[in-house]
Amino acid sequence: MEPVLISSLITSSILVTGWFINNYFSRRHNLFLKKLEHKHEMLKSYIPVAENLLIAD
Questions:
Q1: Which site among 6, 17, 33, 56 is 20 to 30 Å from 50 CA-CA?
Q2: What are phi and psi of 4, to 5 degrees?
Q3: What DSSP designation does 2 have?
Q4: Which of 2-6, 16-20, 52-56 has the highest mean pLDDT?
Q5: Distance between CA atoms of 50 and 56, rounded to whole angstroms?
Q6: pTM of the full predicted structure?
Q7: The dihedral formed by the CA atoms of 20, 21, 25 and 27, expressed in degrees to the nearest 10
Q8: What is the DSSP-derived secondary structure letter of residue 1?
Q9: Measuring CA to CA, which residue among 17, 56, 3, 52 is closest to residue 25?
Q10: 43 vs 50: CA distance, rounded Å
Q11: DSSP alpha helix (H) spans, the chain
């Protein structure tokens, strides 16, 4: 094999591996943001209930 072919294969494999790793971490980050948004909405809806409980005491 020629050195140019070997270096091209190594470079392309590094790029493809980086692309898969980047997609994996991007997907995890997006899932984290969705979970965080859901928790935020849940806590916002709980605030009136907590205020009523404090007023009732």
A1: 33
A2: -65, -40
A3: -
A4: 16-20
A5: 10
A6: 0.66
A7: 10
A8: -
A9: 17
A10: 10
A11: 3-56
Residue 57 pLDDT class (50, 70, 90 cuts): low
* Cα distance between residue 32 and residue 36, in whole Å: 6
The tokens for 24 are 């994996």
Residue 7 and residue 14: Cα distance in Å, rounded? 11
27 CA to centre of own chain: 5
Greatest alpha-carbon pair distance for the chain in Å reads: 82
Q: pLDDT tens-digit profile of 19-46? A: 999 999 999 999 999 999 999 999 999 8
